[in-house]
Amino acid sequence: MHGLLPLLFLLLLAAALPAKAGCPAPPQGSFLQLYLDQGPPWEHTSAQALQRWKALGAQEIVLQWSAHGSPGDERFALIERGAVQALLEAGAQAGVRIRLGLRYDPGLWDPRNHDEGRSADGHTTVTAPPSELETYLARRLRDQEALVAALGPFANHLAFAGWYIADEIDDRNWTSPARRAVLNDYLADVADLLHSVAPGVDIAISGFSTGWMPPQEWAAFWTDLLTATGIDRLYFQDGIGAGHLEMTELPHYLPPLAEGLQQAGHGLSVVVELFGAGGQDEAFGPADPERVMQQLALAAVTRAPTVSFALPHYADSEEGPRAARLAAALAELTANCPARSKAQHENQDQPGR
């Protein structure tokens, strides 16, 4: 049965794409990373920059983080220095919606933060002390409470599109019931916190597969997680740029994931990675347009909206010749496929639940 999936995928792909061959929709959104060394006037978030990305199809920008690093490392400098406010103002001027990310902590994947601390069925014993993971996530939650309090006023901004929980969930660290129970408790608390600030506003989180979990199990994992936590939408990173999945593996993962989430009433957006191996002085650089078109065609089968990672860094005409080449290809795609792009964007605007 598993061997029939590629054939089934090709049939679905032929039915899903527009009549014009090779014409999937361009990404309807893009991630954006801001760093502390990008000082005023925050040139990467000007209205002119957002207009360039909007011309490539992006109707929504996901600010990947509003705080970066371990909890307590810095006091929300991107907020205090005016970067988040500037991004929202630029979004309002450009007619682009802005989804605000919470803290991104690279320490999430620290092995010390993934010990068990719970019995195999996911229940804490009365005498068991908190595990490293429970202690870490409790610290994260306290930090998120302070961060959301600082971000709360922005939820009333005209350009505000929703929230993004910046914890990227992989398929290797959360396989046991114990870890899943701890993770679900933490994410449910964060979702409750965000709902208390802006009731009814869409909440998203992202995840990626390394091929560790089988496709059906991975789809069930996310259906259960979103249902248990009250999070609305999954941003599924296709993993092609990062090397987590091969192009031939995506057809096995995308259809069951899309079907499972849709049946459970949750939203899905496919994150198309626009980067690949870089030159001598960079870890990653802009991908070849031909490869990105393959990724977009694969994502089109789900009929879910696509979000790029990321136009500002890998497909902006002002970011060098390779980025300009990819930007030109996406601009042509946007011009040639406006109807499908509009339809997918309308799907993105719908709440996940």
Automatic annotation (TrEMBL):
Signal sequence annotation: 1-21
Keyword set includes Cytoplasm: no
Cross-referenced SUPFAM superfamilies: (Trans)glycosidases
Pfam families xref list: DUF4434
Positions of transmembrane segments: none
Keyword annotations from UniProtKB, A to Z: Signal
InterPro entries recorded: DUF4434, GH
DUF4434 domain location: 29-316
Domain of life: Bacteria
Protein name: DUF4434 domain-containing protein
Species for this entry: Aquibaculum arenosum
Lineage of the organism: Bacteria, Pseudomonadati, Pseudomonadota, Alphaproteobacteria, Rhodospirillales
